[in-house]
Design goal:
single chain; alpha/beta; EC 5.3.1.1; Triosephosphate isomerase; triose-phosphate isomerase activity; Aldolase_TIM; globular; TIM Barrel; TrioseP_Isoase_bac/euk
Amino acid sequence: MSTPLIAGNWKMNGSLSLVEDFARGFADATLPECVDVALMVPFPYLEAAGRAWGDTPLVVGAQTLSDRPAGAFTGEVSGEMLKELGARLVLVGHSERRILFGEDDAAVLARVRAALACELTPVLCLGETLEERDAGRTEAVVLGQLEAVLEGLGVGERPRLVLAYEPVWAIGTGRTASPEQAQAVHGAIRARLTDYCASLAEDMRILYGGSMKAANAAELLAQPDIDGGLVGGASLQVDDFLAICQSAG
């Protein structure tokens, strides 16, 4: 089994004081021996997080990146910039980027390629809306998003991804997919990966990202194809996020 990864996504939240709170909270935290922990913070806090978390288990990640390496693209941030500030992972294709900022499968693939070119680990987000789930299209949507990226990558690039299944209807709504619902989709993703390569399916980390919190983390993480979590609101509270990380042991 892959080493679990618990990744928090602060979205457009946080502060320098919160960065310091996490530094203190995780400096002497007791974590399972085999768990990776990351926090995806807003661009302005990347450098501060890199400095503050140097002596903790926390790995710094970013929330998106440009598909261009440099140039006249006001407001954009390149992968090399993220890497220079200490980021090691970056979210790509989060549902909010897809829905609010119009990033389609082609745009997501371009950003995955940009991340890989800078030796950043892309955390590729996949997920369906409530309407798509109610229409019985969950697997078609999720696997379609996955295939749109895998088909555009080389065989040697695919293993460098981390996947995150995030049912859009369970993000920030207080609703959570049941462990059985989450496992069903994770299992379908794993099965599709097997179509590409058995070792890819075996080694790929697939995170669950739909309102994971301290109260439900252990049950979700106990599912055979859930390799960690992409945590939203609970990642803004040191104690809650630490409790989720401890559940991954």
